[in-house]
Amino acid sequence: MAKHSASQGNKMKNYVIASATLVGLMLIISRSGQAADPDESARLKKLEEAVQALQKDNAQLKQDNAQLKHEVSDLKKQNAPAVAVSREVSAKKQVTYDGKTYVEKNVAVPEKPPIYVVPRGPEIKLTLGGSIQMNFEDGDVSAFEGSFGLNRKTDRFRIRRAKINLIGEFAEDFDFKIEGNFGLSDGISSNRTAFAGNDIFVNWHRFPEAQIKVGQWKAPFGLELLTPDESLFTIERSLPTGAITPERQIGAQLWGEPFTNVWPEEKDLLTYYVGIFNGNGRNATINDNNNFMTVGRLEVMPFKGKIFGQASSLKLGGNVLNSRDDKGTNISQTLNLLVNQDGSLTPYILPGADERTAWGVDAWLTVGPFDLIGEYLAEDVDGRTVAGHAPGFANFDPSGGYVQGSYFIIPKKLQAVVKWETLEPDQVNDDSIQSITGGLNYYIHGDSLKLMLNYIHTWSDFREAHPQFGDDQFDEVIGRLQVVF
User: Fold this and answer.
1) Are 272 and 258 in contact (CB under 8 A)?
2) DSSP string, 422-460
């Protein structure tokens, strides 16, 4: 259609030029004031014939333009979103009973219109999506998270996550996201689920180098934490990630890619994040005190190209965090950190005020079908005296990390994964928990439809040093079906 329109435009331009030329020639001849000889008469006749041919072609061009406008109008109608959908009528059999006999007859039933979604306001983009993750967990369930002994879990099927989200963008350089999760705790019991908010934010992206984001999302601390759940190579994140990272928070953030415009081909070279947050976790309506949690992260991609003919890249990251928390704040919101008397772990709720400082470094190397990822996280949790009240706990410095390697046995289809991880809560002697995971991922349709299987072997240094508490090594098998829509 575009080529046809351009051709018609060029044709009209040529006709206009030719018309102007002919008219000019006729004016020159008429003003000469001399009697026309036979040769001039012949030329004049040819000019008159050319004008007549031009008029005929112009009439045809007008007709072609009218046809073109009609075709464009029809095309717009076909592409326009349906505002009203006609209800087609179909026949349906209906049986009635008058007390003596059954009567069967055809009854007209209107068809239901198809479902469609249109923006309510001036959004230029509106996307509805979500994901479902179903787990099968057998053996020493969640032992790698410190769930054994007093905190033991049983074999189960589990709705791990069930998200639904809406993402939109405005012409005024704003984008937004609102996402809820049916797989979160209902706030009454950790064994029950309910629908609650995940990511709820608005982002101003007028300048890619300096974007402003407000709302609730994952605070920028930790590579594994910031990797979307649906894109992980293992079914669950590591224990140090869950114990030390701040997870989702409510706050504001400045972030961007400084080289987006000045060096477009290297826009991924540097990305920064600086944010302030309440520090009390997701969906919390208050801040525990007048202090904010400050978080910063820097990512550098010094190499992106090819190694041995394979698409390759190297990304390095570092992050810092500082927070002053009051008594009763949960500082391990997603997994566990507090050491029980038998070496198992539970969420750490502060018995007194503290000041926390955390840091971490990470690296991700990709060479074709091979990925190597490593991350180390550490935190200082120091007691703080408030209004004469002692903190009520001894200072401790949890730390840990993981190394993970993966390889596509069948390109983009079958992937093998191995991960080793360790966490030292540093609250009692020999309280480290270590795990090794082996897994297979089968990508039926990328991350959108994926099957995962993990075997996890875990051992507890504390229980090995205190055999009176029972087993110190644990085994678990986890399977997952993931759908992203």
Assistant:
1) yes
2) EEE--SSTT--EEEEEEEEEEEEETBTEEEEEEEEEEEE
SS3 464: helix
- Is residue 323 within a helix (H) or strand (E), and if so which, with residue range? strand 310-325
pLDDT of 87 higher than 70:
no
Contact assessment for residue 300 and residue 318, using Cβ atoms and an 8 Å cutoff: no
Query: Rounded to a whole number, what is the largest CA-CA distance in the chain?
Result: 131
Phi, psi of 355 (to 5 degrees): -130, 125
386 contact partners, CB below 8 Å, separation of at least 6: 326, 327, 352, 353
Cα 363 to Cα 405: distance, rounded to the nearest angstrom: 12
94 against 213, higher pLDDT: 213
Joined together, the tokens standing for residue 54 give 């031009």
The two three-digit tokens of residue 333, written as one number: 């919101």
Find the mean pLDDT for residues 131-152. 96
Distances (CA, A) of 468 to 134, 192, 279: 36, 33, 39
Specify the DSSP class assigned to residue 227. Answer: S
| CB-CB contact of 127 with 168 (8 Å) | yes
Secondary structure letter of residue 86 according to DSSP: -
Tell me the pLDDT tens digit for each residue of 95-125.
666 666 666 677 666 666 666 666 777 778 8
Mean pLDDT of 328-335: 87
- Per-residue pLDDT at 442 exceeds 90: yes
* Least trusted range by pLDDT, from 49-53, 331-335, 365-369: 49-53
pLDDT band at 468 (very low <50, low <70, confident <90, very high): very high
pTM of structure: 0.77
Side-chain-side CA neighbours of residue 66 (13 Å):
6
Strand partners, 270: 300
Q: What share of the chain is helix, strand, coil (3-state, %, to 5)?
A: 20, 45, 30
Q: How, if at all, do strands 473-484 and 354-367 pair?
A: unpaired
Nearest to 249, CA basis, from 133, 355, 331: 331
- Rounded CA gap, 407 and 367, in Å? 10
Type of residue at 237: R
Q: Which residue has the higher pLDDT, 157 or 38?
A: 157
Q: Which residues contact 117 (CB under 8 A, 6 or more apart)?
A: 126, 128
> Looking at residue 467, what DSSP letter applies?
G
